[in-house]
Structure formats: structure tokens, C-alpha cells
Amino acid sequence: MASSQSARDQRQMVYTVEYTSSPDRKQISYVSAVFLIFNAWTSTFIWVAGMLIAFAGMLTYIEFGTGMPRNGGEKNYLEYVYGKPRFLITAMYAAYVVLLGWAESNSVVFVEYILTTANVEVGRWNQRGVGLACTTSAFLIHGLALK
């Protein structure tokens, strides 16, 4: 009986916590608090704007995909919409792909993995050189192996 009474007393114990503030504690001003609140609203607005832009892009691709007689990617859709002058979109899209270097960054990472797997020291220039060779060979194979 005594043990059950002491267990009940332990469960009914109330803990009090005393909060104290130190003089070294950092305080924020009203201006900082306002900017913190506006920061949250601004970032939310940016995410919502990005969602709306992505949704508009999705609707564009749905419209192109269901309304065009040719299936394919951006190049085919743009060629269908802007037919004249001939090969303008093809040349612009090729310049976009080759000159902006999206394939080069991927090839540099790919070469880093390959060189690490082959136990070759990954240097700045051997990584870039092999990456350029990989990208050039991929472009040549794609350009020359047409039907």
C-alpha cells in the first residue's frame, strides 16, 4: 500500500521551471521583427510565382502535345509554330544547346566518376579534356548517325 501511494505521489509531482534572461541575450528590434515577417511573406510569394510559371509551362506543353501533328520536344513544337525562315529554329536551338554548356557540366561530373573508378588522379585539365572529348564524340555520333 505504501509503495502504491509513493508511486501516485511521484506521478502528481509538479515541476516548476524558472526562466531568467541574461543581459548578454540578443534582442531584436521592431524593424528586425517586421523584416522577418516580410521575409516569410516574400519567400512564399516567390514560391507561388514559381508554381504559377511552371503551371503555365505545363499548360503550354499540353497544348502543343495535343494540337500538333508531330510529336517531339521543344524544337519540333517551335519549328511548327515558327515555320519561316526554314531551319531558323533548328539553328537557334543548336546554338542554345552547344554554346550554353549544359552538356559540359554533366560531362565533367561524369568524367570525374570515370577517373575515380579507374584510379586515375582527377586533375583540373584531364577532367576538362576528357569531358570535352566525351561531349564532342556524343555530338558527332548524334550528328553523323542520321538515317
From TrEMBL:
Its main location: membrane. The lineage of its organism: Eukaryota, Fungi, Dikarya, Ascomycota, Pezizomycotina. The chain crosses the membrane at residues 45-64, 85-103, 129-146. This is Amino acid permease/ SLC12A domain-containing protein. One of its GO terms (cellular component) is membrane. It is found in: Membrane. Keywords: Membrane, Transmembrane, Transmembrane helix. It is a multi-pass membrane protein. It comes from Coleophoma crateriformis. It holds the Pfam family AA_permease_2. One of its GO terms (molecular function) is L-amino acid transmembrane transporter activity. Signal peptide: none annotated. Gene3D superfamilies: Amino acid/polyamine transporter I. It comes from the Eukaryota.
